[in-house]
Design goal:
Layout (H helix, E strand, L loop, with lengths): L3 E7 L3 H12 L4 E4 L11 E2 L1 H8 L13 E2 L5 E2 L3 H8 L8 E3 L2 E6 L2 E4 L4 H6 L5 H16 L18 H6 L5 H11 L12 H18 L5 E4 L12 E4 L5 E6 L2 E10 L8 E13 L13 E5 L1 H4 L5 E5 L16 E12 L3 H4 L1 E3 L10 H15 L10 H6 E2 L1
Parallel strand pairs: 1-2, 1-12, 6-18, 7-14, 12-17
Antiparallel strand pairs: 3-4, 5-9, 6-9, 7-8, 10-11, 11-12, 13-16, 14-15
GO biological process, one term: protein transport
Protein name: Guanosine nucleotide diphosphate dissociation inhibitor
GO cellular component, one term: apoplast
Amino acid sequence: MDEEYDVIVLGTGLKEGILSGLLSVDGLKILHMDRNDYYGGDSTSLYLHQLWKRYKPPEHLGSSKDYNVDMVPKFMMANGALVRVLIHTNVTKYLNFKAVDGSFVYNKRKIHKVPTNDVEALKSALMDFFEKRGARNFFIYVQDYKENDPRSHEGLDLNKVTAKNLISKYGLDDNTVDFIGHALALHLDDAYLNEPAMDFVKRMKIYAESLARFRGGSPYIYPLYGLGELPQPECKVQFDETGKAFGVTSEGETAKCKKVVCDPSYLPDKVKKVGKVARAICIMSHPIPSTHDSHSVQVIIPRKQLGRKSDMYLFCCSYTHNPGIDLLGPVDEIFFDAYDRYEPTNEHNTDHCFISKSYDATTQFETTVKDVIAMYSKITGKTLDLTVDLSAASAAAEE
């Protein structure tokens, strides 16, 4: 190939797809390649026969194309960073979204709807009467808080006050703190309690704003036909004698470029293992019990409720989106999956390779987009402006 590109993007996973779009919007010349015979990389959506091929011989669950199973299932916060990025790259013109029915949390051996405002806090079975009062006042504080308006701060500097100290002001017990921190602020562990409260409050505000955007039962939306909508031979990155990437070879031809973007699997010697994610993929003929018969839902199980080191997440999508363990009820088929998580160890200024982090265990995309935005800044040297009008996403979403 005689043509030279600004950036060659390897892999069609969500992160690589978004970066390709962002860089194209900036006017860079992009070549997007994938060695797999399907789109989406680790975040692909598989038909049933592809799922069987990956895990075990086929059974009798109906037509393969009646199913679309996401390998890295995550919801989008309706007012979150991913929606802003998709609008920035005009992807929302080609996608239809559906509001997710419910958001729930496992507490004291029962599934409860997550209270999202002061009114729901007063009705919630998660708390007793006195606890509800404190939670209501806390929700009002978060709802009214504006970073640029000192009158809403109640004398607290959230860049200095820890989340634990902020919460203690409202006298909330450990159970209430558990579901607020993990089911509303969506923290993975309790380290946030000893950190400045600003991030904690901002996370809760994104949750509340996302909930208000479509006035549904949850703050989440999801592509109507699964994540495979977002965005084949072996691809080998070529380096010069100084260790700088200059192109990618596929089927005997080399495309030249100034920079390479890829997921960890393309450059395994430039990443390190940082953990593991374990998933169970279940095919059911009914909604998850105790979730108000919701066809799409998230249930968060905070680690303290199970005596575990990390939270567990239940993510459910039904035929209403056209994709395809005791809390789940009867399961028709179950597939277990575990994969290692990697982070880059290379010096991108030296080798011109920009490697994404592996997908984490969360069931929403905020951490994914943080990685994408950080990679964008490293590649371009610019800060991504996401102050966009979200009405485009609102118009594309269905109640």
